[in-house]
Amino acid sequence: MSQKENITTVRPRSRFIEHFDIIPPAELLDTMDDQEEEKKGEEEEERQRVYLSADEKLGKKPTPLYGLSTSRLADNHLFYSPTPSTTHSTPSLSASKVSNKRKPINVITTSSGTSTTGPIKFDKKLRSLNKADVIIKRYESWYKFIILFISWLSEIERLCSQSKRTYQLLSDTSSKSSSNKSVNDIQATLYSFTTDLALQEQKLAQVIQNEHLPSLEQFRKQCNYSIKSLKNQFGLGLEEFLKRAEVTASFMTQLAQVCKDARGTIENGAQVTNDPWLVNLYLLRQLKREVDEENRLRELMVPIQKTILNFENQLLESVQNAIKACFNKPGVSTEQSIKILNHSVENNWDTFVSLNQKDIVDEANPLKQYLNINYPYKNDPLVMTIHKGQLERKIGVLNKYSRRFFVLTQSGFLYQFKLNDKMAPEYSIYLPKCNLLQSKDTWFEIQRSGSVLQRDKSYVFRASSSEEMATWCKLLSGYTLRTP
Q1: Are 185 and 288 in contact (CB under 8 A)?
Q2: Which of 88, 251, 267, 397 is deepest in the core (most CB within 10 A)?
Q3: Tell me: the pLDDT tens digits for 126-168?
């Protein structure tokens, strides 16, 4: 499967090729309006606050506030199955089918999109992962280094203090006077030299003790605090994302099966029971829910990455200064050491990012676009939209014209949506079982012949112009039995 985000247009072989879209209409992909989303979000937060308070009283680990219950994963918006009054019903997408015994496809989300690589097993270890796990491990690595470096620097400070005392003893020995002037001059030289060495050792010990060690201790505390904060930050948990990815994988499995079944059904001249277009519509909505959760995590990662980058820069500067202070002792060859040290500091973050590209968020483009993610059968002709638009249809007891949104699919279904509620079709017509009657005006009629179990039915539509009516009739006639 291609991992490219730039999707190449795959046009199906049809005489209506000019009317195909790459994906279902964008206005059908909205999961819910803003008011409904905001209301549900407030209700969920209130419920989580109640649970959190109860857990604290019982001494339990609180449930993440961002978490959604399992029941919400199978809500009516995802698995809604409209039941029109006709026997030519909309292809159903039930929760039982989504949670069937088929093993879900392994969904791996990368910077270039989502790919599928086979069955996936969601074990407890996987569900306990933290989105910032790679950052936590890096903090832990720095923490160990800081402790070791503090120990090394403390030992240098101890040795310097010990050397200072030793040089002072040598100074006292070399300062003894003699009647021989030459001896006195030599002793004075030795005294001056050992005194200078003692002062140098004392100065280095004081610098390490008063400047470098306190600074490093602050970095140690800050590093330890960052580790605990990231581990206890509930918003970074991957449980909800993995749940959504698992449901998305089940949808992909179902889409693959529905496309195969529909293609075989069409070749045999039978009626399609499950329209791949509708399954793909629900899949795209679920994929959007998954990517929305991933984007929420990715947005949290951006300030975390900036924080650790700033921490590392300051820490490395402090370490570099401490090492250079030690290198200033006489007799130490520092040129090559300083060169290696500077190289390590300069390439620190870039090297880390290059080795962990899949876990590090691109701060310039932190968010993913779910429409750019490739998955099996995304460009299958059976999931394409032939035509879409608004029409008026006679509805209700009074048989008055009411405006609705309609979508014509490759499998021969004409779906009817409410203008203010495009969550799921409120009605569907299977055109291969119908006749089309076209008028000279702006209206046309779809007639369905009755049977033993159902009566004759007609659907009257009106377009806003004769050109629009002609377009719809031309496309519909390709699926109906005949055009009177």
Answers
A1: no
A2: 251
A3: 445 899 999 999 999 999 999 999 999 999 899 888 888 887 7
The model's pTM: 0.66
The amino acid that residue 437 corresponds to is L
For the record, the structure tokens of 481 come out as 């039995």
> Does residue 136 contact residue 195 with C-beta atoms inside 8 Å?
no
Rounded CA separation 248/116 (Å): 11
Round to whole Å and give the CA distance between 114 and 376.
10
Amino acid at site 345: V
CA 361, CA 302: separation in Å to the nearest integer? 7
Alpha carbons 107 and 171: distance in angstroms, whole number: 74
Structure tokens at 402: 């009411």
d(CA 434, CA 431): 5
Q: Which helix (H) or strand (E) holds 443?
A: strand 443-448
| Rounded-to-integer distance, Cα 330 and Cα 396, Å | 99
Read off the pLDDT of residues 289-345 as tens digits, 9 standing for 90 and up: 999 999 999 999 999 999 999 999 999 999 989 988 888 766 555 677 777 777 777
Spatial neighbors of 388 by CB under 8 A, at least 6 apart, are 21, 25, 405, 406, 407, 408
For residue 290, how many other CB atoms are within 10 A of its CB? 27
Q: Are 439 and 427 contacting, i.e. CB atoms less than 8 angstroms apart?
A: no
What domains can you pick out in the chain, each with its CATH number? 381-476 (2.30.29.30)
Burial 117-126 (b: 16+ CB within 10 A, else e): eeebeeeeee
Closest to 480 (Cα-Cα) out of 436, 447, 426, 428: 436
Which residue has tokens 């021969």?
Answer: 412
Half-sphere exposure of 404 (CA within 13 A, CB side): 23
* Cα–Cα distance for residue pair 311/305, rounded to 1 Å: 10
| Residue with token string 């409904």 | 36
